[in-house]
């Protein structure tokens, strides 16, 4: 089998770019339905903006249940928005500043029905919201040195601020921004890898139709047990590998695709390109990839060259956007 198309697809994914919607999924749900924003899924955006001295942009809450507390500018996406448009809108509404995203810093999920995208972003204009400009969106905004006492709405933003400071000092992963390509469900394109002690490298591929990187999807319908991103990946690997014999690690996100605009088909879904590491439970037993069940998948060995070097580097340094479940 020629590996040319797979090499191209893998390079696209490693570059953080997007790939077209697949015709079928490699582990489809029996009742897979297009997701609908604010009905079956909720996407949240938040932004970490830093000034020249490393202070972080904060907004003071106007909502009754957290009135007067401080938080990162954040909020739910609205219909017919892209992820980046939602970020810019929330930052502008809550702080008065305009911004431009630098990279996705982290993705957090509570199952596929609540996903938060946190960005590192640069301020590009606007006027910082003062007390006299307070409204229903926020009371005011200010730059915080993240050390002085400040009553926070929640401490869950502190690790995100730390990620932003670390990334600004020494970027851990390449610039990663959402690619505007439509998807109908919450799905994952899986780059499942196996590396042996000699640094030989294999990538799992589906042989159904044209060979491709496997794609799976989350269950999001109320009548099913809703599956998280990591569970959906586990379900895919379980389909072709005897899991007690291997260890599976979801390393993080290489890229993501979303559009969200009105199209002929509802496209509120998102596709995550996810890097996964597969190892033998007992690494002394075998220097080759785990044996696969059936004929729907196979291991593709990557030859020497730039593609292999890049993938090994991303694996060894975890140069990916972290995902928290």
UniProtKB/TrEMBL annotation:
Residues 40-165 form the Nudix hydrolase domain. GO terms for molecular function: 8-oxo-dGDP phosphatase activity; 8-oxo-GDP phosphatase activity; metal ion binding. The keyword Zinc-finger does not apply. It holds the Pfam family NUDIX. It catalyses: 2-oxo-dADP + H2O = 2-oxo-dAMP + phosphate + H(+); 8-oxo-dADP + H2O = 8-oxo-dAMP + phosphate + H(+); 8-oxo-GDP + H2O = 8-oxo-GMP + phosphate + H(+); 8-oxo-dGDP + H2O = 8-oxo-dGMP + phosphate + H(+). Its EC number is 3.6.1.58. Keywords: Hydrolase, Magnesium, Manganese, Metal-binding. Its cofactor is Mn(2+); Mg(2+). InterPro entries: Nudix_hydrolase, NUDIX_hydrolase-like_dom_sf, NUDIX_hydrolase_CS, NUDIX_hydrolase_dom, NUDT18_NUDIX. Mediates the hydrolysis of oxidized nucleoside diphosphate derivatives. Hydrolyzes 8-oxo-7,8-dihydroguanine (8-oxo-Gua)-containing deoxyribo- and ribonucleoside diphosphates to the monophosphates. Hydrolyzes 8-oxo-dGDP and 8-oxo-GDP with the same efficiencies. Also hydrolyzes 8-OH-dADP and 2-OH-dADP. Exhibited no or minimal hydrolysis activity against 8-oxo-dGTP, 8-oxo-GTP, dGTP, GTP, dGDP and GDP. Probably removes oxidized guanine nucleotides from both the DNA and RNA precursor pools. Belongs to the Nudix hydrolase family. PANTHER family: 8-OXO-DGDP PHOSPHATASE NUDT18, MUTT/NUDIX HYDROLASE. This is 8-oxo-dGDP phosphatase NUDT18. The gene is NUDT18.
